Amino acid sequence: MAETETPAFQIIVLGPNGGPREDSVTGVLVRSTSMNWSPGSLVAVDAGTLLAGIIRILKLFLPDSKDEEGFMTAGPFKGLHLPAQSAEANAAHIFREIIGAVLITHPHLDHISGLAINTPILEAGSGPKPVAALPSVLSAIKNHMFNDIIWPNLSDEDGGAGLLTYQRLVEGGNTRFGSGESRGYVRACNGILTKCLAVSHGRCKQRYHPESATHHRIGSAVFPSEQFMLPSRAVSMDHTDASFYSPARSPRLLPANSKEPIMATVESSAFFLRDHRTGKEIIIFGDLEPDTISLEPRNKRVWETAAPKIHAGTLRAIFIECSFTDSIDDAYLYGHLCPRHMVAELSALASTVMALREPGPLPDKKRKRPNTGFGDGTGSPVSPRTKRGSNPPSEKDQKLEPRSGDFSVPDLSDSFADGTDSKDVDVSNIASWADADPLPLTGLSVYIIHIKENLTDGPSPEEQILRELQAHAKEAHLGCEFFLPDPTEGIWV
């Protein structure tokens, strides 16, 4: 962003980590700077950490950074009028009055636990707080959390307390709303519009079923074991570039070996947030996995949506997870990214940006992922620990235990669901933009979130991940900058 340009967004990362500590897991606040802290002008993206993160920040700056009229004079909440004296009471005020809505990327506890614990402080007289997400995400929250068993039903559905209201988003955007560059976007909060795209976050043995609006174990009465008894709303398993399916509206993925368990994709989300006044945008990802090892590779759609915005100079920042260092094997990513895979994904984005700069013939459907100068020499940016070109060793051969707290995944295949080889991704040769001026992602800031803490006496993974990302990105000639967000400082883009 040019030094003379006024920032369109302020972002406060309340929870930058992916566990195992429960007090700093994923939670992000975003506001349009044009709204000047007016009521309903903040949107929370995920709520693993919410009130606890706000209180922690306020305690660092109160009371010294508060003038006689109650306005904050320093810190991420600078300029906000706080009516109370204590950090706790002011945090409750921010949650009740300033946060206009909560967007949820996916229903794992490290992204929704704060929403459950914090919601009882809402006041019914001010109306229910909107919780917006894809239908499958809200179905999980409704049926498995706010269900009067795990937690009281605090929603306004099924006779609940009415403190929350569910806003079911249309995947890919609702084209009934907006026009031009804003087409498909809906209101997130005062001053900010949003559009949600689904991404994949590993695999599991449960799927969301749209007719019952609940999640079921595959092989249950809703998803019978007979191969040809599929849900009535199932669509064709066509995996051409023109088609897209999500677990919410597609048949289950059947194994080649009938004795193997039937696996489904865990659905997560990427939120495009658009400043209504300037048209500037940012993207905040939930947890996601690389397309190269996914049952349903969907990141490409996000990059195809993002590339024109980078080309036009309107997309300013990406907030994206990078849970592990490059020492992790692909078989133990559990639906997450590590530096080698993140840079490979960003290279796919860069390729699309370069194609917009230099329009030419449409590429073939299959293009080999480029040799970035790092990795295994096969064209895939991987570490020596990554197994490519064949299935990873079986659990028996590896004799490795899954990480505690993570869901397990079966042995990975070297092919996509449509039979495309995992290295056959539509990415141009990086050498074609090595001398580009500017480099394809110049001006894009990439903020790393959801890093898994190791809680040992050794070095923390944050700096190692940052170094690995910077080294890979330099060899890939991307041009973007990587940052580790500081929860005590606001990010301005």
From TrEMBL:
Coiled coil: none annotated. InterPro entries: Pdiesterase2, RibonucZ/Hydroxyglut_hydro. It comes from the Eukaryota. Residues 358-422 are annotated as: Disordered. CDD domains: class_II_PDE_MBL-fold. It holds the Pfam family PDEase_II. GO terms for molecular function: 3',5'-cyclic-AMP phosphodiesterase activity; 3',5'-cyclic-GMP phosphodiesterase activity. Residues 394-404 have a biased composition (Basic and acidic residues). One of its GO terms (biological process) is cAMP catabolic process. This is 3',5'-cyclic-nucleotide phosphodiesterase. It comes from Penicillium daleae. The lineage of its organism: Eukaryota, Fungi, Dikarya, Ascomycota, Pezizomycotina.
